[in-house]
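Our consortium's second objective concerns turning raw sequence data into structural hypotheses that experimental partners can test. To show how far this objective has progressed, the report includes one record in full. It was chosen at random from the queue rather than selected for favorable results. The single chain below, 222 residues long, was entered without modification.
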Amino acid sequence: MRRYAPGVRYVGVLWVALVLATLAALAATACAPPQLTSSDDAARVVEDFIAAREARDLDATMASFGDSPELRSSQGVNWSGRDAVRAIMAYRLQDTYTLGDRHVSGDTVTWAEHVRRTVSGATPPANFDEEVEATVVGGHIQRLVTYLGGRRGASAAAASGEPITLSVPWVLPLSLGLLLFAAVVWPRSQSRLPPRQSNGQMLLALRRYAQSHDTQSSEERS
């Protein structure tokens, strides 16, 4: 097995700590929270969206969405991007909606609605209930989730599609700890270690120990 001198290992630990500190700084910048949205702003954005949808105004409806909107369904069908969302909204503008009360919690607005949809060649029209959850970020709808049949509580986690992200707050303390260890603890611990013997010195010491042990055993027998 290849062995490295203490100084080489010290430099290696120092480099690892520096890399972790850099990654922590980059991650903290990339994971900065988005612009916060008040409850009043979220309610206003959703009311504008509902009014535009009722008016069957596609451009006004899309004006309520952000640059990278998402549409998600509890049935596992998802769309992302303005082009995909625009195509779906153009289809859904043909529906007729009967809405319940809106409930606002921070940047999230939820409501229940009954949908009447006339499908070409199908008689009678389709009727179904759904719950809707709109997440507003920076004055626009970032995510719109529909729960068919009003089963929002049972399927909210599956439909939200939130990716599992690695929490970064622990990275910075870890990297600072490694830096402290590399700068303070490691040199002191290395200075306290006795000088390492080479393989030849160790073999010589073992021979001397064995010889002294044999001599002592012979004296005891005599």
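The partners drew two points from this record. The mean pLDDT is 74. The radius of gyration is 34 Å. Both points have been shared with the crystallography group to help prioritize constructs.
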